[in-house]
Amino acid sequence: xxxxxxxxxxxxxxxxxxxxxxxxxxxxxxxxxxxxxxxxxxxxxxxxxxxxxxxxxxxxxxxxxxxxxxxxxxxxxxxxxxxxxxxxxxxxxxxxxxxxxxxxxxxxxxxxxxxxxxxxxxxxxxxxxxxxxxxxxxxxxxxxxxxxxxx
Length: 151
Hints:
Number of domains: 1
Distance between the termini: 18 Å
Shape: globular
Radius of gyration: 15 Å
Largest sheet: none
CATH superfamily: Hypothetical protein, domain 2
CATH topology: Endonuclease III, domain 1
Order of helices and strands: HHHHHHHHH
Number of strands: 0
């Protein structure tokens, strides 16, 4: 298993960068995503949520042809949606960190993220929360629980 490096997010761009990495890693080798990530980050203008949320169809079409990108058009659209939801939730809760910590439990946080954001399944959400330094259960415990639930 690849253990991602934890970060201490300093703003929404760090959260969006990490979430987008989780989105792209769904169905793709993490090695491929890691190798392309500097170019993806550059093409996505540092994952500034206001910029990403405002991307229209023409810009997404261009990104889908950009060799620096992981060219998955539906995931690119999902990232724009996710950027807007992140902005909305940060405004509603005072910060995105406050949103993440408003649920009372890891499982409730996972359920909320899966509801609010596109292409964020259980594994991607675990990866995201772990990477941004939120409390998560030990991976082996989470995997055992995850398998028992039939997911």
